[in-house]
Specification:
Helix 2 runs parallel beside helix 12, helix 3 runs parallel beside helix 4 and helix 4 crosses helix 6. It is built from twelve helices and twelve strands. Pfam families: Bac_luciferase.
Length: 353
């Protein structure tokens, strides 16, 4: 068992590397600067003692990272202890062999710190880009996950499927330092995805971006039921919670500082999805209220929300996305500091009781 498991909840940050204008200055940083800031954020998280750092995959000009493995490899050389994961790898449109070998290489570079969170992604631009059809959305993911797990378990693999050429006695190289690379499935909110994660016996990373977290409890129950029926133990079936976060000295300060950036974030994300809706301050006040899933507030308020969710889900990881909406890097750095020095110790103390 890792120290993370013994300590209850691993605390992490992740980024999707969105490039948005600062709503207060109107300035937009370059992709080059965004990449530099992500590496610096990972270094700060590592030095502060956080457990995991994640990087997401997108194939759009308003995001800076299309290859988490490449980005995490750069981060591996600048960090020492923090685990490095994708958040997420869009498995439906990735070749599982290439994905596995890239992360096995990352594992060698990082002295055994590589992980993968596989998901279907929030956008579909990778399907035409890599020659896949969205009509095969679910089938692609299932087949690719099945192959990815076989690659993780075996040095030599014979395989055939529907969407790629078969191979026989193929040597999968390099092999990671870890016996197997930890693999999770990112789940947005569908029962089918929760069942799939359970049947595969991998971790489930829940994306909870708003509303009452209680509505996600059935997904966790379904996940555990499917996993146990597939023969996996409760120790093998791990849940992580991912969410947007902003921490300040007081809850009012956090809300006042974060609202312009959070409203800005949803404004451009909704435009990317073809919607023109904007977030009002009233909407934001509801989304950040004590009973909801948005982690905005004082360290004490964040801890209360994490612990409430832990009572519901028994999750092993809390992954906070703290760099959205054009948020200046100095505010991102302060959030990393507060998460590591105030939030994480309070969570650990509460869980240990």
């Amino acid at each position: 068992m890792s120290t993370i498991d013994k300590n209850g909840i691993a605390n992490a940050i992740y980024t999707l590397a969105d490039i948005g204008p600062d709503p207060l200055t109107g300035e937009t940083i370059t992709a080059k600067q965004r990449v530099k800031e992500i590496i610096e954020a990972a270094k700060l998280a590592d030095e502060a003692g956080l457990d995991v750092f994640g990087v997401g995959e997108h194939h759009r000009l308003d995001y800076a990272v299309s290859s988490p493995a490449v980005m995490l490899s750069a981060i591996a050389r600048e960090t020492k202890q923090i685990k490095l994961t994708s958040t997420t790898s869009v498995l439906s449109t990735l070749d599982p062999v290439r994905l596995y070998e890239d992360f096995a290489t990352l594992d060698l570079l990082s002295d055994g710190r590589a992980e993968i969170i596989a998901g279907r992604g929030a956008f579909i631009e990778s399907f035409p880009l890599f020659g896949y059809s969205t009509n095969d959305y679910d089938e692609l993911f299932t087949e690719h996950m099945d192959l990815l797990l076989k690659l993780n378990q075996n040095e030599t693999v014979t395989w055939s499927g529907k969407f790629r050429a078969p191979f026989r006695n193929a040597e999968i190289s390099p092999r990671p330092i870890q016996d197997q690379i930890p693999i999770w499935i990112g789940v947005g909110g569908t029962p089918e995805s929760a069942v799939r994660a359970g049947r595969f016996g991998v971790g489930m990373a829940l994306a909870i971006l708003g509303g009452d977290p209680l509505r996600f409890k059935p997904l966790v129950d379904i996940y555990h039921k499917a996993g146990m029926e597939a023969g996996y133990s409760s120790e093998e079936l791990k849940v992580g919670v991912t969410g947007h976060a902003y921490i300040a000295k007081t809850t009012q300060q956090a809300k006042d500082e974060f609202f312009p950036y959070y409203s800005n974030y949803w404004s451009y994300v909704n435009r990317q999805r073809g919607m023109g809706t904007r977030m009002s301050r009233e909407d934001f006040e509801y989304m950040s209220s004590p009973s909801t899933a948005l982690f905005v507030g004082s360290p004490e308020q964040i801890v209360e929300k994490v612990l409430r969710q832990h009572e519901l889900f028994g999750h092993k990881r809390f992954l906070a996305q703290v760099d959205i909406g054009g948020l200046p890097f100095q505010k991102v750095a302060k959030n990393i500091e507060l998460l590591a020095t105030e939030v994480a110790p309070m969570i650990k103390k509460a869980i240990s009781k």
